[in-house]
């Protein structure tokens, strides 16, 4: 016969919480020292790939969760980075954010995101203050608007910040796609096909990317001895491409080739051409920009400029980690070359 106390002891034992997995358990499973496990968690780039993968596999198998408070006390870092993003409804910024999240995860960092409706100076600085109050180690700012450059100037110089798609003369390290080269490739492709000139539907004037794409288009025409025709302003949306395409074909100009500043607007242009009974590329050739997943399924498939968003996200995270380790001396710029993807929407003029 058992006493009441013995029954309570048995109940207590049966409901004990399983022992939490600790770093030594991971080290034992991976066959390495606990110092190596710590390096994989806190500074993975300094561990050999084979060893790092072995430790990460053990972490997954044991479902190990590092104690972030202890980590912060030991290293002075939280293992968390902040990202200031803008208008993630657009393919470019959304793809960039996804790439940064993947790169951070691969580096063993978590991500806190602040998504803004405006990249004016005030909202950007407020977002930076909010992330710093959350204890992030550094911040990546997806800064495609020109106005964001002013905010970058006012961020304390001793706090690690990397700008993505920002102004190349910003006071912070920058990772960006070469928008000028992309526009040059698009325009040159159409000229090489034999078109006498290339019209251009721009993005919003307050976007750095839109301005530089226009500069690349204009410069390419001028180098070919061609006076650039008047531009038509868009806002990245298919609707604006449709409206500006309607203006273009209603202008009475002899239009045979159009470089559109993004693929969504190119879709709007193709729609209005279809409604007007004009063929692409038989009557008018079109080149877009971004290479969104749907571009190859347009009718016809769209020739466009592909941006290496994954590479940009990986590089920006690597640059931030170098900043955190004190390996960057002054602002550093990394420019990624875009690729022209030729499909069926371009051809020589009739």
Supply database-style keywords.
45% helix, 14% strand, Rossmann fold, alpha/beta, 350 residues, 3 domains, 434 Repressor (Amino-terminal Domain)
What's the structural domain tally?
A: 3
Helix- and strand-based class? alpha/beta
Helix content: 40-55%
> Span from first to last CA?
102 Å
The value of Rg in angstroms is 26 Å
Q: Detail the poorly predicted runs.
A: 1-15
**What is the CATH C-level name of the largest domain?**
Alpha Beta
Q: What order do the SSEs take from the amino end to the carboxyl end, as H and E? A: HHHHHEHEHEHEEHEHEHEHEEHEE
Structure characterization notes:
This protein is α/β, with parallel strands linked by helices. It has three domains: 4-66, lambda repressor-like DNA-binding domains (434 Repressor (Amino-terminal Domain), Orthogonal Bundle); 80-177 and 309-337, Rossmann fold (3-Layer(aba) Sandwich); 179-307, Rossmann fold (3-Layer(aba) Sandwich). Helices cover 45% and strands 14% of the residues. It has 13 helices and twelve strands. It has helices at 4-14, 23-30, 34-42, 49-62, 68-75, 91-106, 121-133, 148-154, 179-192, 208-223, 238-250, 263-275, 309-324; strands at 80-86, 110-116, 138-142, 161-164, 174-177, 199-202, 232-233, 257-260, 285-287, 304-306, 333-336, 339-341. The strands form three sheets. It has a six-stranded parallel sheet with strand order 2-1-3-4-5-11, sandwiched between helices. The protein has a four-stranded parallel sheet with strand order 7-6-8-9, sandwiched between helices. The longest helix has 16 residues, at 91-106. The N and C termini lie far apart (102 Å). The relative contact order is 0.11.
